[in-house]
Task: inverse folding
């Protein structure tokens, strides 16, 4: 509900996420005026396959935008710009003339392209395209998913080569539909999303022709790569006339929303999985320690800002697993109470390599392990080991970033659902030996998209003005003894070793 404090104008942001789509309306102070959210179906056709219905997602996006405006009691005239942030790497191909998806979207978590990635690696393996793209050749990224659809959907390759088919990650799909769809929709993506396809050259910020031909993907399907903060077009329909003015992959949007505008500033988003991004300035830093080199953001014609990224596959989803599959807790919040009922982990370490290990190992042959079990261990100890798993995985990524960039982490800005767990936040500060800081607005992903869109239309003047908006809500400082930290880390790393090589290579 609007009151005198939230007189317009406003910026709206759409977050097209993995499990739901939402729209948040922000005021000039970067405060939330209203939120609307709607979940979409998760489709699992086979083990390891994950899909979304893109038409359902577009319907939901339209509903949450109308919902958020209605809840705020405002009209489109009050909305100065619209920003987009999205689940990254999720891949869609659709018919340019009708707007019909040719197949369900293949979600970032989907592993059906594992064998294709091995084949594409030839004799070089995972690093074949790393120099150009900053990425390992893995099923996670969009390029191999495009190739899979071209190979497996009847007649699709021919249509793609004739220019009848468009590819997009979810930002492109939403922007194309917002700006008119089959009737003049703008086919663009931004540098952050493009940098997750395995097809963009990090140095030129353009599609890499050599990689396109290696992967056998026709250039005709690709969107135009633009900056993260500029007006791509104006909306039609319910948002008639509102400038669509930003796009950022969700993790980069959180980096932006956390105002990590200087080299060495980092944020970690604790959700289903966890993503830690470190701003490395105007130079891409190659990783030799299992991290991804990615574009952090680019504002209009300014120089791009690069980041190192470490991703952890399983953090919040481990708590869900404890609740849904194991029945050891009834709600996610209960894990903190249970874990706090004991002093330590009782000697147990839980490495949740449910879908292999992500950074810094990238081992798809690993599976989850609980190590160090004795009769002494209770479910409370295991609950504590679950929280420690998130902290130690964060530590491993921070160590890798330090090795790659030579940049010491001074403080970690955190966001995401798990930051409401105080014991977890304290544990992270302890194992990093660095302060952990949570901002007032926890919705940093949407906020980042709003900030970028606002900059594009002059709603905010510059990044200094955005920095002044950032307010601290809570801070945790380390209080663990150094000797204990080292001892526990050693045991954690020992447990990680036990997860590897569980799945035998299938030929």
Result:
């Amino acid at each position: 509900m609007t009151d005198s404090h939230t007189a317009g104008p406003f910026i709206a942001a759409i977050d097209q996420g993995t499990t739901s789509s939402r729209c948040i309306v922000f005021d000039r102070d970067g405060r939330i005026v209203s939120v609307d959210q709607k979940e979409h179906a998760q489709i699992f056709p086979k083990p390891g396959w994950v899909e979304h219905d893109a038409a359902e997602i577009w319907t939901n996006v339209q509903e949450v935008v109308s919902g958020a405006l209605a809840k705020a009691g405002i009209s489109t005239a009050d909305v100065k710009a619209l920003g987009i942030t999205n689940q990254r790497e999720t891949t869609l191909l659709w018919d340019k003339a009708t707007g019909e998806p040719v197949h369900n979207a293949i979600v970032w978590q989907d592993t059906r392209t594992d064998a294709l990635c091995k084949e594409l690696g030839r004799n070089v393996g995972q690093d074949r395209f790393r120099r150009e793209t900053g990425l390992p050749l893995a099923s996670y990224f969009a390029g191999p998913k495009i190739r899979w659809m071209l190979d497996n959907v009847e007649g699709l390759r021919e249509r793609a080569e004739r220019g009848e088919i468009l590819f997009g990650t979810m930002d492109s799909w939403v922007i194309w539909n917002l700006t008119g769809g089959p009737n003049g929709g703008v086919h663009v993506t931004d540098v952050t999303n493009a940098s997750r396809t395995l097809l963009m050259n990090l140095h030129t910020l353009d599609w890499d022709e050599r990689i396109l031909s290696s992967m056998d993907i026709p250039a005709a399907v690709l969107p135009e790569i633009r900056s993260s903060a500029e007006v791509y077009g104006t909306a039609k329909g319910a948002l008639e006339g509102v400038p669509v003015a930003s796009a950022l992959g969700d993790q980069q949007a959180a980096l932006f929303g956390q105002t990590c505008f200087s080299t060495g500033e980092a944020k970690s988003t604790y959700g289903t999985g966890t993503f830690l991004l470190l701003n490395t300035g105007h130079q891409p830093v190659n990783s030799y320690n299992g991290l991804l080199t990615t574009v952090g953001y680019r504002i209009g014609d300014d120089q791009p800002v690069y980041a190192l990224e470490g991703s952890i596959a399983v953090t919040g989803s481990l708590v869900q697993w404890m609740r849904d599959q194991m029945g050891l807790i009834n709600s996610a919040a209960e894990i903190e109470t249970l874990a706090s009922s004991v002093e330590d982990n009782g000697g147990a370490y839980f490495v949740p390599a449910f879908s292999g290990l992500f950074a810094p190992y990238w081992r798809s042959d690993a599976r989850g392990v609980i190590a160090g079990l004795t009769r002494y261990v209770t479910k409370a100890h295991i609950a504590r080991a679950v929280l420690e798993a998130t902290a130690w995985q964060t530590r491993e990524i921070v160590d890798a970033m330090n090795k790659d960039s030579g940049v010491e982490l001074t403080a970690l800005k955190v966001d995401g659902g798990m930051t409401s767990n105080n014991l977890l936040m304290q544990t992270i500060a302890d194992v990093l030996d660095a302060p952990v800081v949570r901002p007032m607005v926890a919705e940093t992903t949407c906020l980042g998209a709003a900030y970028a869109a606002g900059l594009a239309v002059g709603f905010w003047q510059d990044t200094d003005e955005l920095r002044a908006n950032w307010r601290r809500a809570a801070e945790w400082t380390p209080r663990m003894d150094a000797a204990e930290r080292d001892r526990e880390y050693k045991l954690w790393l020992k447990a990680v070793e036990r997860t590897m090589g569980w799945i035998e290579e299938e030929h």
Summary: The first helix runs from residue 54 to 72. Confidence is low (pLDDT under 50) at residues 1-5. Residues 430 and 480 are 5 Å apart (CA to CA). The first strand starts at residue 10 and ends at 16.
